[in-house]
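As the next step, I needed to go through one protein, both as residues and as discrete backbone shape codes, included below for the reader:
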Amino acid sequence: GQYMCELLGQLTGDIDPHEALYDAFAATLEQLQATDRAEVALLGFELILLHEIGLSPVWNRCSSCQRDLPAKGHIYFSSSAGGVLCRDCEPAVIEKRFVEPHVLQILQNPTMAKRASRQNVIEAHELLSYHQRELAGKQTAVMKFVNQLLHNHTGKSVNE
């Protein structure tokens, strides 16, 4: 809950009217109490938050040239570019991260998160966490703690 409050505080203004965010916040708190898949609930909230504030990344086409993404090949994500980049546009962008195909599928179709492995959903969360850090200009202690907590469930190290 504190993590979600922190995101709201960093990415919204004090008087921003976002009823959908309030509803998503309340629903996510309920989901966190009722499920053992916290990563799915948090990913859903993060996606709604970014959509509601108008900073949702482009996942279905290159955010630079607007062309459809190739069926195969390397795809990168750039927060500063506002989404994924095709192989032709990627070299010109310094700030970027490689996106695994299974992560991109979850972000393109978030309903897949419920059926995806815990590790794959956490990787999708990590990419959104990276985007949030880039937007806010920093990583907070709570964000770092949540990322480490999620990784402790998978046994993998934090990829920061």
